[in-house]
Amino acid sequence: MDVLEAKTLRKVYQLGNHSVNALDGVDFLVQKGEFVAIMGPSGSGKSTLLHLIGGLDLPTEGEVTLAGQALSLLNDKQITLLRRHHVGFVFQFFNLLPTLTTEENITLPLLIDGKNARQYQERLDTLLNLVGLSERRKHKPDQLSGGEQQRVSLARALITEPEILLADEPTGNLDAGNGEHVLNLMLELNREMRTSLVIVTHDHSIAERMDRVLVLENGCLEVQA
Q1: Cβ–Cβ under 8 Å, residues 216 and 45
Q2: Pairing mode of beta strands 196-200, 164-168
């Protein structure tokens, strides 16, 4: 079953009198539970592609079908709801709210969606245990290490039980030890939950652990392994 399908995606940015093709005809599928790495040099279109398939931006041409729904047929509110219910995001920078505790940051997506976080207490407790932060649930971000903050952001991305997790250089802001720990945790949790994973990375050792590797060059998909 395909969780995500991208067809002939093009993204053109206008810089003054010049047009820049960030993506130029990209096609690929992501199946349920599949792990896919996106690699390529800086400026090749990796983050642009991630934003398009996550509904954070719209393509100039082409179509993204996410969780069975074509994004071009949805309005902004519908795309937001689709993203909220089916997609989790983990970025290089942790994007935690500094005034909220660990557990408050994790349950924030539920509150934004109008849900009662208390009804998800069991899932919260399970995630806190899985990411090793049960003892730090009342701590605020400035009381946590970088690795701990990224584990909070991972738990936050998974609290809604998304079908697909999109990660943009999730270990890029961590030292080698913490990066390895976060990656192992991400892979373990996604396998356990059968969540698809698309990860943008420069790290070949991370790409080697994925099911497939997509290589972007100048906005084009050069290699699919």
Answers
A1: yes
A2: parallel
